[in-house]
Amino acid sequence: MTMPLDQIPTVMPTTNRPQNAGASLDDDASRLDAVAKVTGQAVYGRDRYLTNGIYAAFLRCPYGVATLESYDELAAKAVPGVLEVEITGKDGQYHGHTLGHVAGDSPTAVWRGLRALAPKWKKGTVTTQISDSPLDVPERNDKTKELLAAADHLLEAEYSTEVQIHACLETHGMAIDHKGDSAICYSSTQGTFAATDGLEEAIGLPRSKYEVVCEYVGGGFGSKLNGAGKEGVLAAKLAAKYKRPAYCFVDREGDQLDTGNRPSALAKVAIGFKKDGTILGGQVRLWGGVGVGRGGGGMAFPSGRYAFGELQRDHSDVRMNAGAPRAFRAPGHPQGAFIEELVIDEIATIAGIDPLAYRLTLDRDEDRREMMRLGAQSIGWDKRQPTGSQKGVIRRGFGMGTTTWGGGASQAECEVVIARDGSIEARTGTQDIGTGQRSTMGIIPATVLSVPLAMVTVRIGHSTLPVGPGSGGSTTTPSTAPVMQAAAEDARKQLLAAIANLQGGDSSEFDLKDGQVLRGGKPLLSWKDACAKIGGEQIVGRGKSVRGQGGKGHSHGVQFVELAVDTETGVVRVERIVAYQSCGKAIARKLAESQVIGAVIQGLSFALFEERVLDRNLGSMLNANLEMYRIAGTLDMPRIEPVLWRRGQVGHKSLGEPPTIPTAGAIACALFNALGTPVRSLPLTPHKVLAALAASQKLSNSTPASAPGGAS
Amino acid sequence: MKSFAIAKPRDYQQAATLLKDERFSLPVLKAGGIDLVDHLKEGLLAPDLLIDVKRLPAEANRPPVARDGDRIRIEASATLADLVESKVLASAAPVVPASVESAATPSIRNVATAAGNLLQRPRCWYYRGDQFHCLKKGGATCFAQDGENRYHAIFGDGPCHIVHPSNLAPALWVCDGWVHLTGGKREKLAIADLYHLPDRGLRDEHNLKPGEVVTHLSIVPAQRSGFYAVKEKQSFDWPLVFAAAALTLDGTTIRAAQVCAGAVAPTPWPLGAVEEALVGVSLDDDAALRAACAKATAGAVPMSHNAYKVQLLPVAVRRAVLRAAGRTTEP
Asked: Across-strand partners of B230?
């Protein structure tokens, strides 16, 4: 199994998902940077340990609330290699709150300096969860009262989700190679062109004198859209002050504590419905747990995909002593969908309707209804037992959920350069945070010019390249793909015109096919020979969009889950997930499938495992690492079957976020189906499963005839 | 981190001598280094000498696992992967490989050693966080008592409520395991005597004396032995509760049983009441088997958020017994 690196093909045919054959521009292309990434050849910002660099780390509040009472600045400064110690504040409002920094000649010197600082803290009283604050439910208005009075049944229940951390493999930060009158900023960012926001003052150079490089970015999920961030600003200040390279990437603990999260959610719902399942409406009261943040705790419930009648809806963000949220892959949606899908399954169960049949009546979108019918066949919905009917130790459950995404597009420019030696460069400044952007930017010109993908060198992740959007809102591909297509077509047109000029005739007589120039459908010149005839040094094809242009329609999908739950241990094992997802015309089948699979995994992990655990007394995060902060691992993986939906799909639409929306809800529904009692709180851990079973046992012992799910 | 010297001793005797070397204020043994590096990074330990014993048995050309008279000898530096791959253990003491086959990750199992697993420190998140000056670190408070104790002990009476993290120790316990020592007066110590509860010392969990070094382990064969762990996550996670069992069978009737649980107490937790109750029970009589395993919870005192462990323990014990008997655990 030793294959020289340069012989590992970038194109590998795969036939493991025949349902997706022909779904994309290039079905067989593999990720262009796969080999570089798995061999360590890919250099990330965090890998830029620059010669003669200064390193910096923050002094962080170790408790939810604490005042810095004293510290030994002299001792810290006396540590060999420590250059400066700066305390910028004394009132820590959350664990991880930065109150100063130590900078020095090496990471070790900085680490020793921070320890020598020996800060003494006076701890204060903390709040760590939504329910630590008073939770008022507004009085029901007349309309709500009327609807609920007219209902045959009332579902009155409380749902909650925990804080999920982005946990990017590459932590947040920036390394700045300051050369005195210019600088290169190696950033781990989701926005090449926004990565320097906030840096202007600190770096002490005009914007034209520094560039951003982010050729490889180790994950973002929304948490790397905040400009330079405090890490970049500190690196810039140090670089400018000492006229040396400076490095400030946070450690894992700092990353877990203080670089954003998906906020927690709490919902109290009272929904009235008729015997036949028709939802009249009711009241939903929602709270988002935003730590010290000033907002961002909203959730997409109701989503608008289902007929929920008329809802009296109120939302509040609740502050507490914890790190603030940042955008997280479909902000507000997975937690909203969890509530929504489980509410629907609970209503269906009380009404005695199959949840699939029920959704087919609640959701009026014809594409999704068709996905529901096909997905039900794929998962084997006919094997589903009625909710609450199983008595064994191991019980099986089936569940489903839906997703939609608005999409859109923003400003992008691309270039396709053909050199006289036949080599091709695709250029755009956007970043690849793991989505496959580098690959899609190569596949498009390779397809338009009908040459092997290996002939295209893709240049991305530099602010000196043509401008492109940040990776937010799942708009990178919808924004750049049409523009790269236009650039490639422009290059093609120029090349054919040059050949027509030399050969005589009209350029419409010429065509490019499989690395050859055709005339009248017959081979005329090889690609290489044709390019050698280019007048001047090279051809530059250009494409450009403007803000607000492009982006039509939306992405949507339906997911189905099959799982088994062990009712003696409470352990949930998800076995299969079928994910129908539309994204317009996919560019690379394997990468599109990979986006769906990754989104499903993140949704599964949110459903079963992930939780920021704060000490209720001191507010410290107890699992600010990747050991006790649980993320789904290899043995937790179900078989995931992505199906790229093609009917009626044109253009390139969003794919990054939409497939992570329905997974947690579908899993919760499948668990409800298996157990006969809902677990209304994520993550669905063994102790919650056992507690729900025990509570339902109690309920059925005392009131044998009551409806399942605690409904009245 | 603090600078330290590294010593590469010729043999365990020399390692033991280095442990007593007065030129160093805190010499520590380094084998796989997994838990040691965690301690260095967290600032929980600042040794000035690391004594590298990782490669010692290899130099003596000893296999990691081998039969040794009527016992099986396991080198202190055998990796967890060595235990999983051992043909001797697979047939003669399946509980041992079963106890570590899904511990941590493959890359950790390739490095972590048997003795290191036995002597690793607790994973209690208060112990591991340097902002908590807990009992184990000389403080006056167990932060788990009124805090986040979902993963803490249901036995042991405190005052520290850690659970011992070793998967291997209960497995060796049911195989009459010993640790073999050099550097002190004792030649060996039973696994059953290796650990102490917090009331007999908070700073450590084991009964080794200063200067004593584990050279190898030994067990008696236990062909009818099995292990069961309940884990939240199946990859890279610490079990919520686990159990190891070894049986002597007469047909389908249990004649004798050794049962030891883990992740429920500050030490591996032997279940004598279960062992007694299992004698005479037929594996085909599930009601009797369940009744015997239910005795596992006798004396359990759950904390505010870990009562579920009381529910899980008899389940893990019964399944370990069924696995020991070569039966499937799930109906």
From this structure: B241
Query: What pLDDT sits at residue A182?
Result: 96
Q: How many Å apart are CA A433 and CA A598, to the nearest integer? A: 13
Of B131, B311, B331, which is closest to A63 when you measure between CB atoms? B131
Instruction: Give the pairing of strands A120-123 and A66-70.
Output: antiparallel
Of A566, A613, A691, the CB nearest to B148: A613
Confidence of residue A10 (pLDDT cuts 50, 70, 90): low
Residues 81 through 120 of chain B touching chain A, CB cutoff 8 Å: 102, 105
CA distance A477 to A409: 8
- Do the chains contact at A393 and B146, CB–CB below 8 Å? no
Mean pLDDT value of segment A107-129? 97
CA distance A413 to A480: 7
Using CA atoms, how far apart are residues A402 and A381, in angstroms rounded to an integer?
A: 16
Cα B64–B66–B70 angle (5° rounding)?
145
Over residues A175-219, the pLDDT tens digits come to: 999 999 999 999 999 999 999 999 999 999 999 999 999 999 999
Instruction: Choose among B157, B67, B151, B53: nearest CA to A611.
Output: B151
Q: What local confidence, expressed as pLDDT, does residue A708 receive?
A: 42
- pLDDT, residue A9, reads 63
Residue of chain A whose Cα is closest to the Cα of B308: A687
Whole-angstrom Cα distance, residue A540 to residue B135? 69
Are B103 and B97 contacting, i.e. CB atoms less than 8 angstroms apart?
no
Chain B hits for A691, CB-CB cut-off 8 Å, are 308
Cα distances from B43 to residues A161, A371, A387, in angstroms, run 33, 54, 51
ipTM over 0.90: yes
Q: How far is B128 from chain A (nearest CA, A)?
A: 9
DSSP symbols for A663-697: HHHHHHHHHHHHHSS---BSS--HHHHHHHHHHHH
Residue B315: closest CA among chain A residues belongs to which residue? Answer: A568
The answer for B 29-48 residues in CB contact with A (under 8 A) is 43
Q: SS3 letters for A270-320? A: EEEECCCCCEEEEEEEEEEECCCCCCCCCCCCCCCCCCCCEEEEEEEEECC
pLDDT beyond 80 at A711: no
Judge whether A334 and A660 are in contact, CB under 8 Å: yes
Query: What DSSP character marks residue A466?
Result: P
Select the residue from B1, B127, B146, B308 to test the A interface by mutation, using most A Cβ atoms within 10 A. B308
Name the band, by pLDDT with cuts 50, 70 and 90, for residue A707.
Answer: very low
- Asked whether the beta carbons of residue B308 and residue A690 sit closer than 8 angstroms, the reply is yes
Total length of chain A: 712
Judge: B123–A623 Cβ closer than 8 Å, yes or no. no
Q: Kindly list the residues from chain B whose CB atom is less than 8 angstroms away from the CB atom of residue A108.
A: 1
With a CB cutoff of 8 Å and minimum separation 6, the contacts of A13 are A27, A28
Cβ-defined contact of A392 to B331 (cutoff 8 Å): yes
Residue of A122, A569, A688 to mutate when probing chain B, most B C-beta within 10 A: A569
Residues paired with residue B219 on neighbouring β-strands, in sequence order = B72
Q: DSSP for A331-368?
A: TTHHHHHHHHHHHHHHHHHHHT--HHHHHHHH---HHH
Could you read off the pLDDT of A331-352 as tens digits, one per residue? 999 999 999 999 999 999 999 9
Contact criterion met (CB below 8 Å) for B103 and B262: no
Output DSSP code: residue A461: S
Q: Which residues contact A309 (CB under 8 A, 6 or more apart)?
A: A147, A271, A272, A273, A278, A279, A280, A281, A282
Contacts with A571 from chain B: Cβ below 8 Å: 230-232
Q: Are B316 and B98 in contact (CB under 8 A)?
A: no
What pLDDT was estimated at residue A640?
A: 96
